[in-house]
Each structure stands twice: as C-alpha cells, then as structure tokens.
C-alpha cells in the first residue's frame, strides 16, 4: 500500500470505513483503466492519481458518511459518466445490487470493462435515457437509493431520478457549492414528484477544501404516471 492508498484508507477510517486489500487493489485498477481509456475517449478532466483518489473516489464514497449503506440493497446511479459515485460505492459495499444508467454507449463499454476487470458482480449497466428507462417495469419505483453526481440542476434531477426511487426510499443529489437557490427553484418539482427534503449535509473535500453538499430527498409516494416526461423535455422545460 503506497502513500496515496494509505491516505484514502485513513480518510475513510475516520468515518468508520475500513478497506481490505482487495478493495484497495480494485481502486488502483480502476484508476489505471480510467487513465488508459481517457486517452481514447473523454471520461474525466482529472487524471492526476492523487486528485482522482480525492475528487472521484473519496468524493463518491462520501455518500456513505450520511447514508447507512449497509441497509441499501438496490442502488441506481443516474448519468454515471465514468462510474461515479456508483462504482466506488460498490467497491466499498460489495453486497449492493448496483444499476448504472448512462445515455452514451461508449461509456457503458468502458464501465463494462471496469466491472469485468475488477471482478464485480450484481452490476447492471443500462444504455439509455433516464426518462425512458424510468418508465420500465423493474426500474420504476424500485430502488432503495438513487444517486446522481453533478449532472444537472435539482429541478431537472428530480425528474430524472425520483421515478426510480421506491416509496420511502432516498434520492441523494451530490452537489458542489451552496444549493439553497437550486432547492428553492426545485420546490414545485418536489411536490409533483412526491419527494421531500430530508437533510442537507455540507462538507469539504480534503486538502483543497472545496465545498460539497449532499441533499437527501425522501420519496413519500409513487411517481405520478405522467412523469418523467419525454426525453429532452425535463432539460428544456424544468418543473419550476
């Protein structure tokens, strides 16, 4: 275990998370594949090893500081890009049944490669638009926890993500700076999509101390049938 891995281990240990040797190896393999594939396709603007470990791996796993992942059976990651936060959470909590939904098939190809090389099981990779997949049986109103990291504004994210959440389940929106304005703007969409803000957790990333916020939204009823609207509509005309 080198310095950067020890650093990740130390940071997570402060939050009661201890990684085994296999998990640390999986993170390192993930890093290597990310950088290698990034030369062929645009996966991330961050390739420095220490930065990837902090801004992608640690940042992804930070959701576990505010949610009891041991009680999460089914997790969906919407618009996951290079696999964040879904894959780092799966590495740390192997029991989770993870579904990643992304609209770009090339990214799904990369994620499938990573899942195979890391030997992860119970990971479903779905190529498609969230607005279409959320209407399918087995996906709609089905997940204990749904997450999206820096994908869009909250009023839009609610329509992308809340349809996947089971009644009483949680949608965790992972955001950067102060989300108060976004949350105010999203009030109408919360009502329409049957979500209620349960908590907002601010924290800072280690070293550079950039701001992060995790907004936990609880779903109190099933999604009305008219949502989500057609692909592209939530982005063009958000529920505000």
Secondary-structure class: alpha/beta
Provide the helix percentage.
25-40%
Give the quaternary arrangement of the chains.
Answer: single chain
How does the major sheet shape up?
7 strands, mixed
- Overall 3D form: globular
- Whole-number mean pLDDT: 96
- Count up the helices: 10
Taking pLDDT < 50 over at least 5 consecutive residues as the criterion, the unreliable ranges are: none
Number of strands: 7
Q: What sequence of helices (H) and strands (E) makes up the elements?
A: HHHEHEHEHEHEHHEEH
Gap between N and C termini = 49 Å
Radius of gyration: 17 Å
Tell me the strand order in the biggest sheet: 3-2-1-4-5-7-6
Beta-strand fraction estimate: 15-25%
Lay out the secondary structure.
Elements: H1 3-13, H2 21-38, H3 49-61, E1 74-78, H4 86-92, E2 97-102, H5 105-118, E3 123-127, H6 130-133, E4 143-149, H7 154-161, E5 165-175, H8 180-185, H9 187-193, E6 195-204, E7 211-219, H10 233-236
Parallel strand pairs: 1-2, 1-4, 2-3, 4-5
Antiparallel strand pairs: 5-7, 6-7
Helix pairs in contact: 1-3, 2-5, 3-4, 7-9
Using brief descriptors, characterize the structure shown.
38% helix, alpha/beta, 10 helices
Describe the structure.
The chain has 240 residues and is an alpha/beta fold. Helices cover 38% and strands 22% of the residues. It has a seven-stranded mixed β-sheet, sandwiched between helices. α4 links the parallel β1 and β2. α7 packs parallel to α9. The radius of gyration is 17 Å and the shape is globular. The relative contact order is 0.13.
